[in-house]
Amino acid sequence: MRVVLSDSFVRSFIQAPPDIQKLFGKQLAHLLRDLRHPSLNAKKYDAERWQGRVDRSWRFYFRIEGDSYVFLDIIPHP
Hints:
Elements: E1 2-5, H1 7-15, H2 18-33, E2 43-44, E3 50-55, E4 58-65, E5 68-76
Parallel strand pairs: 1-5
Antiparallel strand pairs: 2-3, 3-4, 4-5
């Protein structure tokens, strides 16, 4: 799978704390190996988007388009 980062994802990622950025890298590696990795808790968020877990308080959102994961946003989880 290829990774595509949207402009909004990049802006949010840059604003995220350094420890969250590092954890996202770890979770991205898990995602590229296995969408169903337990620590990701990846699930369909709506008809087009998926949600994955960075940690207990941060989530990332992405779409699957062909052979690509298109990352849309990374935000604190309410």
